């Protein structure tokens, strides 16, 4: 029984039939040829773009971490005696986050932001969530995208002037303006994540005997849910995907308000959190079955 070529073993490559010394060998490529010079420039451009992308990913990771820490800090307001002290500390943390965003804006100077958007979107969404959470605690309202973008305009001293001397006056200093605009998708996704933090804030408030905050949060979440419902499936896929989580958060807060309104007078304040946690587990089980 003869083995056919390709039925077993390794198939010989065509160039293996030629002696080794007779294989095709090109002449030394002229490194100064126009084609090689063009490809070298392409290589340098692609390497620079890849390095910039990696730097933006690292900055986005730092922005995400610092924004999360700010959110954790803001959750302490429900149990802290001094709200202003925590708000001041959170503002300092957000200022440090904005310094990271300044570095992002400097990296994107002269570049098309949408080519690098995937590298920074996670951090920007988390920043929107932190800023909107702080704004809600202060004003019980939703911060607009324009207000967020106004905070992302930076003025720095221009250190790139060669004719600059150390003895130059402050009036002679030249300044550069940097800005970074949050995209509508980043804003919507950040607000969608905010609803989860407000639901946690509602739980903490109930546990501390605060019966006013849950009703304020419920009314606010209803307005946000109505706004997202208008977008529906016409918006980006990520936005419609988070609509289900938003609906869950709204249901939990509304059930907490129901328990407070109907049975609040008969339940001691220190037991409200237990009643709310039981209702939350019942909601999760019903949603898991359906």
UniProtKB/TrEMBL annotation:
Assembly and oligomerization: Ring-shaped heterooctamer of six TSN and two TSNAX subunits. Interacts with GOLGA3, TSNAXIP1, SUN1 and AKAP9. Interacts with the homodimeric form of C1D following gamma-radiation. Interacts with TSN and C1D in a mutually exclusive manner.
Keyword Ubl conjugation: yes
Residue ranges of the region described as Disordered: 1-32
Composition-biased stretches (Basic and acidic residues): 16-28
Role description: Acts in combination with TSN as an endonuclease involved in the activation of the RNA-induced silencing complex (RISC). Possible role in spermatogenesis.
Name of protein: Translin-associated protein X
Binding site for Mg(2+): 129, 197
Family (UniProt): Belongs to the translin family.
Gene Ontology CC annotations of this record: endoribonuclease complex; Golgi apparatus; nucleoplasm; perinuclear region of cytoplasm
GO molecular-function terms, A-Z: metal ion binding; sequence-specific DNA binding
Main location: cytoplasm
Keyword Magnesium (UniProt): yes
UniProt crosslink position (Glycyl lysine isopeptide (Lys-Gly) (interchain with G-Cter in SUMO2)): 279
Short name of one Pfam family: Translin
Organism in which the protein naturally occurs: Oryctolagus cuniculus
PANTHER family in UniProt: TRANSLIN AND TRANSLIN ASSOCIATED PROTEIN X
UniProt keyword terms in alphabetical order: Cytoplasm, Developmental protein, Differentiation, DNA-binding, Golgi apparatus, Isopeptide bond, Magnesium, Metal-binding, Nucleus, Spermatogenesis, Ubl conjugation
Coiled coil stretches, renumbered: none
Protein's cellular compartments: Cytoplasm, Perinuclear region; Golgi apparatus; Nucleus
A biological process term (GO) from this entry: siRNA processing
């Amino acid at each position: 029984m003869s083995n056919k070529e390709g039925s077993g073993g390794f198939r010989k490559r065509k160039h293996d039939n030629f002696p080794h010394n007779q294989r095709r060998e090109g002449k030394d490529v002229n490194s100064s040829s126009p084609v090689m010079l063009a490809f070298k420039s392409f290589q340098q451009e692609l390497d620079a773009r890849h390095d910039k992308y990696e730097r933006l990913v690292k900055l986005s990771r730092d922005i995400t971490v610092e924004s999360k820490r700010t959110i954790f800090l803001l959750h302490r307001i429900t149990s802290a005696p001094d709200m202003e002290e925590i708000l001041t500390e959170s503002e300092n943390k957000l200022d440090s986050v904005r310094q990271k965003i300044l570095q992002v804006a400097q990296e994107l100077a002269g570049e098309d932001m949408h080519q690098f958007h995937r590298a920074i979107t996670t951090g920007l969404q988390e920043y929107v969530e932190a800023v909107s959470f702080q704004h809600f605690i202060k004003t019980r309202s939703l911060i607009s995208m324009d207000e967020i973008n106004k905070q992302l305009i930076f003025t720095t001293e221009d250190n790139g002037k060669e004719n600059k001397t150390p003895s130059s006056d402050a009036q002679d200093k030249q300044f550069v303006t940097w800005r970074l605009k949050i995209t509508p998708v980043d804003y919507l996704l950040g607000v969608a994540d905010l609803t989860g933090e407000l639901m946690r804030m509602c739980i903490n408030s109930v546990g501390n005997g605060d019966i006013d905050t849950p009703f304020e949060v419920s009314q606010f979440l209803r307005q946000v849910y109505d706004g997202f419902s208008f977008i529906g499936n016409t918006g980006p896929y990520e936005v419609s995907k988070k609509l289900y989580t938003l609906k869950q958060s709204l249901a939990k807060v509304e059930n907490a308000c129901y328990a407070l309104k109907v049975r609040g007078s008969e339940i001691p304040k220190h037991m409200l959190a237990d009643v709310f946690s039981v209702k939350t587990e019942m909601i999760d089980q019903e949603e898991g079955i359906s």
